[in-house]
Amino acid sequence: MKEIQMVVKGIFMSDGGPFVALVTDEERYKDMVLPIFIDEAQAHSISLALEGIEPPRPLTHDLMLTMINEMGGAIDKVVIDQITNSVFYARLYVEMYVEGRRREVCTDARPSDCIALAVRCDAPIYVSEEVLEKAAVPIE
C-alpha cells in the first residue's frame, strides 16, 4: 500500500459541518483535496494548533501529547489507511525508547485525533493511495 504525505490546508465549514482539508504536492493528487468531516470540538482543537494558540489549560490532545512525551515517546507519524462506508480509519505511530532500545507502538485511532496530535508536534500525515482514490475530490 503506497502512502502519500499530506498536509492540513485548514478547517472549513460546509452544510455537512466542519471538515479538515488535507492536500499534497505529489503530482498525481496535487489538484485534489481530501475532506474529512469532524465534530466541532475536534475542529476547535485542530484550529488552535494550526494557529499556534495555546489555551490557558491543556485540551485533551495537549494532554495526550504531554503524556506520550513524558513517558519517553514521540509521535512518529499518522497514517489514514482505510475508508469504509464513508468512515475513515487511521493509525497513530509512536516511537518509544525503553532501556535504550527503540520500540514502535501503533494504535488504531480516529483520524481527527491523529491530525490534532500531528499538527501539535509537526508529525507527518500520510494517506493511503486507496483512500485518496475513494475519497479525494478536485480542489474548487
CATH class: Alpha Beta
Largest sheet: 8 strands, mixed
End-to-end CA span: 28 Å
The percentage of residues in β strands lies in: over 45%
Q: What's the tally of helices? A: 4
| CATH overall fold name | Bifunctional nuclease domain
Overall mean pLDDT stands at 95
Tell me roughly what share of residues is in helical segments.
25-40%
Spans of at least 5 consecutive residues with low confidence = none
- In CATH, the homologous superfamily goes by the name Bifunctional nuclease domain
CATH architecture heading: Roll
Count of β-strands: 8
Shape: globular
**Rg from Cα:** 15 Å
Secondary-structure content class: alpha+beta
Widest sheet: strand ordering: 6-5-4-7-1-2-3-8
Topology, pairings included?
Layout: E1 3-14, E2 17-23, E3 32-37, H1 40-51, H2 60-70, E4 73-84, E5 87-98, E6 101-109, H3 111-121, E7 125-128, H4 129-135, E8 137-138
Parallel strand pairs: 4-7
Antiparallel strand pairs: 1-2, 1-7, 2-3, 3-8, 4-5, 5-6
Helix pairs in contact: 1-3, 2-3
Q: Which properties best describe this structure?
A:
single chain, 140 residues, alpha+beta, Bifunctional nuclease domain, eight-stranded mixed beta sheet, 4 helices, 29% helix
